[in-house]
Structures are given as structure tokens and as C-alpha cells.
Amino acid sequence: MPYINIKVTDEKVTKEQKRQLIEGATQLVVDVLNKSPKTTHVVIDEVPIDNWGYDAKQYSNSSKFKS
Questions:
Q1: SS3 52
Q2: What contacts 13, CB < 8 A, 6 or more positions away?
């Protein structure tokens, strides 16, 4: 039983985008590992940008969020 955990920042990921992620991740496991979609579980965790970091910096403090 495959379990896929996708983590994304909480930046307005739409219901449709989540549906596409679930469908695409499931299809990948079907194609690559020959697993059944009926037993494949996908969980999407939306992580607050204050809790996400890269390059030793907090994502919410990156230039993308500074005016």
C-alpha cells in the first residue's frame, strides 16, 4: 500500500491543483511501481511559510515576500 506525502507551502494552492497533484502522484506510482490506485494513499500537507526555510533563511522573510 503506497503512501505518498506531498508538502507544499500554504500559498493558495487551489482544490483543483490538489486534485491534479493527487491524480498525478497516484499515476506515477501506478506507472513506475505497478501499484493499484485503489490502495495508493496521497496526503497533501500545507506548511505555513513561517515554518518553511531554505538557504538558511525563513521563507516568509525571503525577498519574494518583502515589499
A1: coil
A2: 44, 46
Which pLDDT tens digit goes with each residue over 5-56?
A: 999 999 999 999 999 999 999 999 999 999 999 999 999 999 999 999 988 8
Question: Residue 40 corresponds to which amino acid?
Answer: T
Whole-prediction pTM: 0.83
Chain centre to alpha carbon of residue 67: 27
Q: Fill in the DSSP letter of residue 62.
A: S
Which of 2, 9, 30, 60 is the catalytic position?
Answer: 2
- Asked if 48 is an active-site residue, the reply is no
Largest separation between any pair of C-alpha atoms in the chain: 47
Residue 56 has what DSSP assignment? T
Q: Which residue has the higher pLDDT, 22 or 65?
A: 22
